[in-house]
Amino acid sequence: xxxxxxxxxxxxxxxxxxxxxxxxxxxxxxxxxxxxxxxxxxxxxxxxxxxxxxxxxxxxxxxxxxxxxxxxxxxxxxxxxxxxxxxxxxxxxxxxxxxxxxxxxxxxxxxxxxxxxxxxxxxxxxxxxxxxxxxxxxxxxxxxxxxxxxxxxxxxxxxxxxxxxxxxxxxxxxxxxxxxxxxxxxxxxxxxxxxxxxxxxxxxxxxxxxxxxxxxxxxxxxxxxxxxxxxxxxxxxxxxxxxxxxxxxxxxxxxxxxxxxxxxxxxxxxxxxxxxxxxxxxxxxxxxxxxxxxxxxxxxxxxxxxxxxxxxxxxxxxxxxxxxxxxxxxxxxxxxxxxxxxxxxxxxxxxxxxxxxxxxxxxxxxxxxxxxxxxxxxxxxxxxxxxxxxxxxxxxxxxxxxxxxxxxxxxxxxxxxxxxxxxxxxxxxxxxxxxxxxxxxxxxxxxxxxxxxxxxxxxxxxxxxxxxxxxxxxxxxxxxxxxxxxxxxxxxxxxxxxxxxxxxxxxxxxx
Length: 511
Prior knowledge:
By secondary structure, the protein is an alpha/beta fold. Among the domains are: 6-217, 3-Layer(aba) Sandwich (Rossmann fold), CATH 3.40.50.12780; 405-503, ANL, C-terminal domain (GMP Synthetase, Chain A, domain 3, 2-Layer Sandwich). The chain is 31% helix and 27% strand. The longest helix has 17 residues, at 31-47. The chain is globular, with a radius of gyration of 23 Å.
C-alpha cells in the first residue's frame, strides 16, 4: 500500500506546474516557493524540539502558511493536529492535553495567547511550547500516522481520529479518479482547512499539480470574485455556503464559466436546490457523504453516463441523494443479526439500516481510546452511526443518525457536550440538547431545561452562559424551560419526544 510522501509530491508539482500555483490575498507562490516554505516550517519545529511521532497542533485560518504547515510537519515525521479556530480557549486546551501536543504552530494573533514563554516567530506564523506535560514516558503516535483530527465524542469527551499516511494516499488516489482531478484544475479552499471537508484537497490538488486558491473566511462576494479572477474549477462547500454563492451569482446576473464541478456535503440538498445550483452556476454538482474517520469521502452522487439521459427531475433526485460508493471503499447498509454479526438490508430504497464501511481510507482507530475503537469496529467493519437505505443502483440515502448528532451549517455538534456545559450552571437541574430543522443552517441547536426547584433563569442567560464556554455554533439558539423532561420506560430522557414536534411532517430526520 502506498504512503503519502510530502517531499516527493512538492518536487513533482514544482516540475509539472510553473508560475503561481498558490494564491492567498497578495501572496502568490509557485510550487517551489511552497516547497521551500514547508521546509522552513519543518526545520523551525525541529529546532523547538519536535521529533518524529510528536503531535504538533496547528491553529490557522485558511492561508498559504497553513497549507505549507501540512507538508512541513509531515516532512519531519510529525503528526499535525489541526484545531478549529472557532473553539473556545478551554476547548483548545482540552485537545492540546489529550493529544499530547507539546508544541503549537499557528497564526500569530490566534496562537499567541495559548503559548508559553519560549515561542518564536516565523514567516506568517508563531510556534512554541503549549505547557502540556507528559507522564514521563514520551508517547509516540503510530509510525504511519499523519494527522490527528478531533471530533467531540458522544460522551462529551473529545475523540482524536488518527489518519495515517496510507489513509491520505489512498484518498488521494480515490478522489483523483472519482473527480477527474488534473493539473488543469484550480481548487478553492473556501471551507475551513482545519476540517477534512477541505483539508483532503491539500493533498489531492498537490498530487496532480493543480492550483490552490485560499479564502481565509468565507464570504460569497469574495468567493465569487476569486473564482472569476483565478479561474477556479472545483470546490467543496457546505449547503449554506453553496446557496450563498448561488444567490451572489443571481444578484450579479452572471455565471462562473471556469467552474466544472461543485461538491457539497455536511447536510442534504433538496432536488429543487440542486436544480437551482446547476441552472445558475452552469456546472456539474455532486452531493458527498463522509466522516473524519474515513478521510473523509465515502460516496458521491455523480451521475453515470447512462443516467444523463434520464428525465431532468430524476437526475435532480439522484444528484440530491447521498450517492454511490467511491472507488476503493466497501460500504454496506446492514441490520444486526447477532452481537457481532449483521446482514445487508434489501436494496429497496425503503428498508433502513446502519451504514458500515471498510477500506484503505478508514482510520485505524481513535487516539488513546481503545474502547471507542473496539466499539466502532465491531464485526470488522467501521460503524458510522448513520442510518439509511440503499437502492438497486447502489445509491445510498441517509434518513437519520443513530447518535444524537446535530449538523448545523456543516459543523457537527454533539448534544452531550452542550449538556455538560448547561449542567455547570448552578440553576440547571436537567438538560437535554437536540437538533431542530432550520432552513438556513440545516439544523439548529435547541435545549430543554428543568431548573432547580424555586429558581428562575431567563433562557437568554443560559444561551449566554454556553457562549462563554463553547464555540458559538455549538450553543443553543433557543432554550425551553420545562417543569419536567419526558422519559422512556427505562427512565432515560426521551429526546425523540422532544424533537418530534419540530420534525413532524418531514420525511427524514436529517434536514
